[in-house]
Design a protein that fits this description.
Length: 96
């Protein structure tokens, strides 16, 4: 499976890094490892995580510190990661 991290998710990851850096290196390392573990799992088993109840074309994974990863598995065997947001934030509408 090919994994593509879209620009919106890249922006989210930069924002998360900036926020977690306020608390030292350990939270950043834990978050990065959690995201790497997610990538490894989803690459092997793309349908592992539940469909997002408000828009079932997406799947949603929960990783370190309550962050949510929203992704889609395409017919072309490509996994596209759309957003990485904290679970307490309002999730903006995801693109169709």
């Amino acid at each position: 499976m090919k994994i593509i991290i879209l620009s919106t998710a890249k922006d989210d990851l930069k924002e998360i890094h900036g926020y977690l850096s306020e608390f030292g290196d350990t939270p950043i390392k834990k978050f990065k490892q959690s995201f790497i573990d997610f990538i490894s799992r989803v690459e092997k088993t793309p349908l592992l995580y539940a469909q997002y109840e408000y828009n079932p074309i997406y799947r949603r994974a929960v990783i370190e510190y309550g962050y949510l990863v929203f992704y889609r598995v395409g017919d072309d065997k490509t996994i596209r990661i759309y957003r990485v947001l904290h679970g307490k934030r309002d999730v903006a509408p995801l693109p169709e």
